[in-house]
Amino acid sequence: MTSNHTRTSVVALLAATALGALTPVSAHAASGPAAVPAPFTTAATAQARAAATSPATLRTLSRFFARSGVIKATAARPHLAGPSVTVYSLTPEFVAGRREAPVAAPRFIASKAVSADGQVASLWTVKTAQGWKVVNIATGGDETDYVGEAHGRGTVFQEPQIDAWYVVRDGRVLPLDPDARRAVGKAGVSLAGYQRLVHKKYGDKLPGSAYDRAGKGGGYGGTLAPPPASASTAHAADAATVAPSGPSTAFTTAAVATAAAAVAAAVLAVRLRLRHARRSRRVAV
């Protein structure tokens, strides 16, 4: 697991419009969260996995694994290990305190990749107008590892603002990593209790809030760089180069304009301040 370690990303997956125009309401008014949506279908997962094993993706993976100079790209020989899985993330509706909102929803399909020297990375694949595309690569295998740790009992999801991983089981939100345990305790909390918790932490940071208008949604005091005028996700992935990130861990939308449009309702992390040093380097595409 890499929850407490620095991670590396190829690109930030999700657009700054991810939260939509939500109006925060009292989390205490919720009558009970809805059941989480079903995961992506078997057919969709197969298509996502095919994208993750395309020649362009494997070339990008080879360069990704070679970024530190420990292994040459020509020797990396990346391959996928284990099943590809649906990754769920905390929903903005749940954070806003909406009645019967699901705690999490499917956001992308993750596949674990391994290099010849044992390095591990996670490929994030989303459905775009052009089909399933790999739009992000991150070091480590959290996305698939935590799903496996739940052994099919409940739905695993991420609170991306603090990179915490949970499983929803029998009406409770249970922690799967140290960040989650710090947030909800070893025994976890009820769904209603978790909704009150995240509403208190993030309910005033939704789009249109003073926090958002001040330009802090990207995790710093400035504004997010706009996406390029045009960019093919597949071409961008094949042309990846490594570049160090700044002190902020804010998500950007560089080189994923096409994919971002398909996941515009995705994750709170784009709009909220993220923990510093979660990712020390970013691959620009």
Topology:
Layout: E1 7-9, H1 42-52, H2 55-65, H3 73-76, E2 79-90, H4 92-96, E3 104-114, E4 120-128, E5 131-139, H5 142-149, E6 155-159, E7 164-169, E8 172-175, H6 178-184, E9 189-190, H7 191-202, H8 210-213, H9 233-238, E10 241-244, H10 257-262, E11 279-284
Parallel strand pairs: 1-11, 2-6
Antiparallel strand pairs: 2-3, 3-4, 4-5, 6-7, 7-8, 8-9, 10-11
**How big a fraction of the residues is strand?**
15-25%
Reported for the largest beta sheet, the result is:
8 strands, mixed
Q: Give me the side-by-side strand order of the main sheet.
A: 5-4-3-2-6-7-8-9
Low-confidence stretches: 10-30, 218-285
Order of helices and strands: EHHHEHEEEHEEEHEHHHEHE
Rounded mean pLDDT score: 73
- Return the structural class: alpha+beta
Total count of strands = 11
Helicity range: 25-40%
Summed up, the helix count is: 10
User: CA-to-CA gap between the ends?
Assistant: 26 Å
Summarize the structure.
With 285 residues, the protein is α+β, with helices and mostly antiparallel strands.
Question: What features would you describe in this structure?
Answer:
The chain is of the alpha+beta class. Helix content is 26%, strand content 25%. The protein has ten helices and eleven strands. It has helices at residues 42-52, 55-65, 73-76, 92-96, 142-149, 178-184, 191-202, 210-213, 233-238, 257-262; strands at 7-9, 79-90, 104-114, 120-128, 131-139, 155-159, 164-169, 172-175, 189-190, 241-244, 279-284. The strands form two sheets. The protein has an eight-stranded mixed beta sheet. The protein starts with 6 loop residues before the first strand and ends with a strand. The model is unreliable at 10-30 and 218-285 (pLDDT under 50).
